[in-house]
Specification:
Elements (H helix, E strand, L loop, with lengths): L2 H24 L2 H17 L1 H8 L5 H15 L3 H12 L6 H16 L1 E8 L5 H15 L2 E8 L7 E5 L2 E4 L2 H15 L1
Parallel strand pairs: 1-2
Antiparallel strand pairs: 1-3, 3-4
Length: 186
């Protein structure tokens, strides 16, 4: 792991631990989970938000004002809004992606679940998602929460990541394996 990545993860872990402990003590884990889901969706969908949190061109005040507006528009809880405001004032918004990941892991652990990141060539239907979750739950021995993403470069099939385990059944991977085999022969 590179040094900047480990520093970001360390910073995110401290904020995540504080937020998680506060939410658990106040019985607001469900609210925290919905806040994390909303923030994750916003980070994935908005290039402007990703630019805001990572660009050094914005001042503390600009980041603080922008993040306050985003939080208000998204309707996030007051405690999560306070966390985001504090992070903006400390110039720590760049760790939001790691914060989301860490909080997801803590919430899943508390609920006895495992999070699976699933990439597919086209969006999975609700039935497909439920069937996949059931199959993964049987093999993992825990309830599996699926975070689905679409990656058209896969051509077909799925890439499933559960913790440090990855299952790649995509056509892209099969074609690359075939290409490597052909290079070895020729």
């Amino acid at each position: 792991m590179s040094e900047p990545a480990s520093i970001s993860t360390g910073i995110a872990s401290r904020y995540a631990s504080a937020m998680f402990d506060l939410s658990r003590e106040t019985g607001a884990l469900a609210t925290l989970e919905s806040d994390v889901d909303a923030l994750d969706a916003a980070l994935r969908e908005s290039a402007d938000l990703r630019d805001l949190i990572s660009s050094p061109l914005y001042s503390r005040e600009e980041q603080g004002a922008a993040i306050s507006a985003v939080v208000a528009k998204m309707g996030l809880s007051q405690s999560f809004a306070n966390l985001m405001s504090l992070m903006a004032s400390k110039r720590r918004l760049f760790v939001l992606p790691q914060l989301v990941t860490t909080l997801r892991g803590m919430i899943a652990s508390e609920k006895g679940e495992v999070t699976a990141e699933v990439s597919s060539a086209k969006a999975l239907t609700k039935t497909q998602t439920e069937k996949l979750a059931k199959t993964l739950s049987a093999s993992a021995g825990k309830t599996v929460k699926i975070i689905a993403a679409v990656d058209e470069s896969l051509i077909g099939g799925l890439v499933v990541k559960i913790g440090s385990q990855m299952i790649d059944t995509s056509i892209r991977a099969k074609l690359m394996a075939l290409q490597n085999t052909m290079k070895e022969v020729g």
